Amino acid sequence: MLAYFVKGYNDNNMLTPNYILILFIVSVLGLAWALFTLFSYHRSSSNARFVGVIDIGFVGAFIAGVYYLRFVKDFDCVSIAPGSQASVTLGIFGSATLNTLNLNVNKTCGMLKACFAFGIMNCIFFFFTAVMALVHGDKAEKEVKVHRSTSRRSGSHHRRSHSGSHRSRRSSHSHSRTYV
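Now predict its structure.
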């Protein structure tokens, strides 16, 4: 929706106002970041704190964008006015007179209000993903620590028990997993 406004201003050879431009740039960058983290989720446990910090940065950027667009919350984008009367015949049941309503919707105002609402929703969503990334990262770090301590214990036990016997064909690192 914001691209509609940017294109309109560019087509009329005018500068796009800051309240549209800030939210547009943050939305495009937020979309790119969300897609990048979605496709690199398998590596996110090792850099979860970084993902959480960047998501918190996007929360702040969306708050700034919503702050610049805050004036639109007071606009009334829809006006309803009484229209003409219409008479409807109902056959053997008689007739009825109805008052019609004229509904006028300002498209530009409605789209700006929708962008304002989407900006607020993006603040909430990025905050939620930041918290989830930090929780996921702490969980993954604990799993890695537990795995390392158990593999150290089992590795030293393995070496002691087979010190006098024949050597295994496997390397000592074949049973360990690598977390990237």
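The radius of gyration is 30 Å.
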